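User: Could you check the structure of this?
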Amino acid sequence: MTRFTDLVGVEHPIQLAPMSRAVTPALAAAVSNLGGLGMLAMGRSSVEAANLQIDEVLALTDRPVGAGFIHLFLDHGAWEAAAERLPIVEVFWGAPDPDLVLPGALVGWQVGTVDEAKAAVDAGCAYVIAQGVEAGGHVRATAPLAEILPAVRAAVDVPVVAAGGIGTAADVRRALLLGADAVRIGTRFVATVESDAHDHYVARLIAASAADTVLTERFDVGWPDAPVRVLASSLAAAEMAPAGTVATITARDGTVTDLPRFTTTPPTHATSGNLDALPLYAGTSVDAVHARQAAADVMHELIEGTRPA
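Assistant: Sure, the predicted structure tokens are below.
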């Protein structure tokens, strides 16, 4: 048990990263049902979309589940709905805001610096996620996890979750020894059966290594000035693609949306087109992705890292 597991009421100090488009209610529930903290990815969700995800996950688990929001795109109605129906809500990409710390909810904030971590605690957050530059997807950090984690741990008196480059049991153990109260896992869970990531995307992850990832600000349509870590091949494919639409994505109601070159939307099962030119988000932990696995198999492996060597 750690300060984080005590705080959120889970058995293992493992948290699913709330990755938009990849995370499904089934994936969040699978992580929670095995004693970790499953997270829904709210992204730009409306109240209706948020409640639909919550309905689905609550039908699949009675364990604690949280929801992650992007401050830049936060719908306050969706935030309030999630905070009322789920025990944990958290935010990424924005200055910590005390107005979002609602009574009765455990609020977390993902940070990239010590100053942001202090501001999150001052705002009333119950925990912080210290992100290292090794992380996949949108990266707020500028320092490696081994540097920022102990610095944040020393600066705040709330549980600290480590994020970035963690994909194996050995990585989990290393982060906990550095002072993390829990670890946050993204890329490994993108490549799970329960993820909505397109098979082509997962195949690219399986074939890749940490050296094949790159930080870039090119995937910025709708979210400017935000570095992302992707597979270098996807950046090259986007740069070579003609301007305009590179792919389309079909919603549940049949609505088709065009995805422009340098969109922030990764490929899902509902995507078609030039998938290689979409952002194939990947952290340096992609080294640990060798097959598309059930979330339970990934969890069992990672849990070994929480036990004494």
